[in-house]
């Protein structure tokens, strides 16, 4: 038997492998060897080890960290720590801080060369189906806090880390302060974009200047004060918390994915052009995308280099030149290719592109039609003509002119106030409505690449890669996960109800709108316009809409994306679809989808609605696949 390194009686929390399994705390004797962490029943009176209750294979451990104790924790549960492995978190409570630190240190030392060590973790407990720190409801959800020692914030302190001898374990200690709510009144933020007030109550934002947050009355608009003491409302997606330093570098493009980076770099077409982006695929990791032209070449190509982290928390790129912060690493490679195809010569930035605000100014949802100019017609939809235009002569908008008799307007206008508050980078933003005249207008964000269905059929310049197609799927999953977290149903999710912006990002539109359509052909499931091809059996048979019918539609949308816009069940008419789908017939695997992609699609199509995943889970699954493709 392997010799034990340490033994200790701890309280162990039950692992709640199922959401409904009970939460209990039992005293166990923990025995640590070089290979395993085992726990036994323990006979207090005789001081003897009894039967083995469980074992963790230390090679599978992904993270060992302190946990912030529960509110009003009893005295015996004040020093918890977590061992994260395949089966999820194992929570252990030590008697005092010393024992807690000693065990964490020893465990970290043993696991420090494990594969797949996490860079982000949850500082609080998983309780009854929810992470207490970030309220996410998926157990596998990526951690919400970057491990200290890896944090990108570190670059801002200006203090390089002291060199760590190799023998030292990769200890990433965490001070036991309560996790700060990431955003709070009184905090200082820095403007990432210029904001010119759209309404009289708003405050102007100047890029890179600091502001203090005074009030957070709304999900999207906060009241802030600038350095001159002026106060007003600002769109909170235009600012970042001071200290998130990467955001302050022009080369950092936070929400950019691989295809968007390639698009941007190819458009710039400059040898040595680069961006640094989140390797969205793995939390807390970054990727350098670099464009280069071999001399004489006209086309050029992109390469992607992951910024690697050593177990001591240092950063390096292709060759192993180590730096304690990412900005230092970038500065070095601006002068030295050191293993890359070229040095990082030219910073390419997408910062000019400011995100959409939730409405045109705080509290603004009625728009004065005289502030709109119409430029050209974009298309014709269920409610009539859609036009591209400008608001106040400078802001791009799309305007739906609602044909009279096509919509239950009163109800919609009420709903619009709620829709305005939905604000996510993968949802088409509703800016406001003009309701004082007829026809009424719905004013939204304008997306220059138009409808996704048309884009798939005609708009892709080159044959798309697997990654590009999956990134579209991921965009939609993220937008839908946001709707899901707000308990908002789409009811008509399909490629025709997604739009594509200039850099290829896909955004979901027309959410919830089908409830206000006045047209029997559309609303009745026997009608010719009812989205039969996107509907699950329970909708076709009993009109039972739920978040799970949106999931079914998402699977069909993934299929549309991977067939470049084919009509689902193209050889069947509506009646045949109802018959076949309720008998268990499903769409085939598109050529562009491999088995893994197809299995995600199919996971949306079990007959039993409750067996379908959530959008949160889908987003994670698509992301995992993307990571493997990289
Ligand atoms: P409806 O939902 O009323 O049926 P659509 O949303 O389908 O109408 O709009 C019709 C067409 O107008 C779309 O296919 C698309 O090409 C274009 N369009 C609609 N909204 C926008 C927008 N926000 N940005 C760019 N194009 C748009
Ligand atoms: Mg539509």
Automatic annotation (TrEMBL):
Residue ranges constituting the PH domain according to the UniProt record: 4-112
Catalytic reaction(s) noted: L-tyrosyl-[protein] + ATP = O-phospho-L-tyrosyl-[protein] + ADP + H(+)
GO molecular function, one term: ATP binding
GO cellular component term of the entry, any: cytosol
EC number: 2.7.10.2
Domain SH3 residue range list: 184-244
Protein origin, superkingdom: Eukaryota
Classification via SMART domains: BTK, PH, SH2, SH3, TyrKc
Cross-referenced InterPro entries: Kinase-like_dom_sf (IPR011009), Non-receptor_tyrosine_kinases (IPR050198), PH-like_dom_sf (IPR011993), PH_domain (IPR001849), Prot_kinase_dom (IPR000719), Protein_kinase_ATP_BS (IPR017441), Ser-Thr/Tyr_kinase_cat_dom (IPR001245), SH2 (IPR000980)
EC top class, as a word: transferase
Keywords for this protein: ATP-binding, Kinase, Lipoprotein, Metal-binding, Myristate, Nucleotide-binding, Phosphoprotein, SH2 domain, SH3 domain, Transferase, Tyrosine-protein kinase, Zinc, Zinc-finger
Domain annotation Protein kinase: ranges: 372-626
Transmembrane segments annotated in the record for this chain: none
Cofactor(s), by name: Zn(2+)
Residues reported in the UniProt entry to bind ATP: 400
Domain SH2 stretches: 251-348
Biological process terms in GO annotation: intracellular signal transduction
Similarity comment text for this entry: Belongs to the protein kinase superfamily. Tyr protein kinase family.
Protein name: Tyrosine-protein kinase
UniProt organism field: Gadus morhua (Atlantic cod)
